[in-house]
Design brief:
Elements lengths: L9 E6 L3 H5 L2 H10 L4 E6 L2 H8 L6 E4 L7 H12 L5 E4 L6 H10 L2 E6 L14 E4 L6 H6 L22 H13 L7 E5 L15 H15 L2 E5 L5 H11 L5 E3 L5 H8 L4 E5 L2 H8 L4 E4 L5 H4 L6 E4 L25 H4 L3 H12 L2
Parallel strand pairs: 1-2, 1-4, 2-3, 4-5, 5-6, 7-8, 7-10, 8-9, 10-11, 11-12
């Protein structure tokens, strides 16, 4: 029989989805640590970017990285069993975690299993194996869904939840400042873009067309005297370059290359606003308190909007949208509209939202 929450000494939080999902779990970590400062809170991740982010989080005692995607099964099993030897009092699965594999990992880790039940494919994904669980509420933000789990940890849920946590070091800000100086942009009004997205589960279809990003850049430069910075990981270098080239605005549209994620976040913090698809960089922008123009298609903005920051949601609002829900099943346009929900968002609407948020 597991010990009561007030007797717990250490817990392991499983943040196995992407960076954005790990970020939306940070308010839970902040509240748990504030209420239980003596508690050892470790985190398990499977993306390197999540590891680097969590290592700077003052609420986390230790970060454990296991490459469940690319690593061999026996190596992953060995790593999980090694973690089991830490004898955690509980494992807590951050929402979303609607996969059978995540529930099996919780069993192997030992301790009390805490997390969510899900509205789709719940039984087949073994969510009934949890000891303590709440059903996800698709009308409330993921931050709120995660905070609901505090009740199983013996912590009262406050009426107001904290913002996302992405701590920046002085060296991160210095790197961002040096990048701006190198390009002669210290005194420019900056607008950030993120035109990419995750690729797993067919999420390339979250992306607003690159041609529209280029048209937006042209309008911002010509009509609002702005300078555009295009962010994204190394895997998005080609996309960033295509947008910059198509915008035809030399010395006013720049691709941000060669910076690690924290330095990029420090650079985003200096932007008047960020224009992003529903992506990790949308949540990072919110975490560093940069206003966000968020472009949504088939994902649920009620659960995923930029938390705790001034923002504008731009979406078509088609009757069939949102249609994506948390499960292993990849995204698909069930209405046969070729993802019109994201692809037909009007450049003029996004431009107006930029001018409003950035005060252009």
């Amino acid at each position: 029989m597991s010990r009561k929450p007030e007797k717990w000494e250490k817990v392991l939080c499983m943040c196995l989805s992407g960076v954005g999902d790990a970020l939306t779990f940070t308010p839970f970590l902040r509240l748990l640590k504030a209420a239980r400062p003596e508690l050892q809170i470790d985190v398990l991740v499977m993306f390197k970017a999540s590891q680097h982010m969590m290592e700077n989080n003052p609420d986390v005692s230790a970060v454990h990285f296991v490459d469940f995607i690319n690593g061999k099964a026996l190596h992953s099993l060995s790593a999980v069993l090694k973690l089991r030897s830490n004898k955690y009092d509980a494992t807590i699965a951050a929402c979303p975690a609607n996969r059978a594999e995540y529930n099996l990992i919780q069993i192997l880790l030992g301790g009390r299993r805490i997390g969510h039940q899900y509205n789709h494919f719940n039984f087949i994904n073994l969510n009934w194996l949890k000891n303590d669980a709440l059903f996800e509420d698709e009308s409330r933000h993921v931050v709120e869904n995660n905070a609901d789990l505090l009740q199983f940890c013996g912590v009262q849920i406050p009426p107001e939840l904290p913002p996302l946590q992405f701590p920046l070091k002085p060296s991160d800000r210095e790197t961002a400042d040096n990048w701006l100086k190198k390009h002669g942009l210290e005194s420019r009004r900056l607008i950030g873009f993120h035109a990419g997205s995750a690729l797993f589960k067919n999420h390339i279809n979250k992306r607003w067309p690159k041609e529209k990003f280029a048209e937006l850049a042209q309008k911002l430069v010509a009509l609002a005297d702005a300078t555009v910075l295009i962010f994204g990981g190394p895997e998005e270098d080609e996309l960033k370059g295509e947008i910059a080239a198509a915008s035809d605005r030399k010395n006013r549209v720049f691709t941000v290359d060669g910076l690690k994620l924290p330095a990029s976040a420090a650079l985003m913090q200096q932007c008047s606003c960020m224009v992003t698809n529903d992506s990790a960089l949308m949540h990072i922008s919110a975490a560093v308190q940069t206003p966000v123009v968020a472009l949504f298609g088939y994902t649920n903005p009620k659960m995923l909007y930029p938390w705790g920051v001034k923002h504008r949601l731009i979406r078509r609002g088609l009757p069939c949208s949102p249609c994506f829900y948390y499960s292993p099943k990849p995204a698909q346009c069930r209405a046969g509209l070729e993802y019109a929900c994201i692809r037909e968002i009007d450049v003029g609407d996004v431009y107006a939202a930029c001018r409003e948020l950035a005060g252009l």
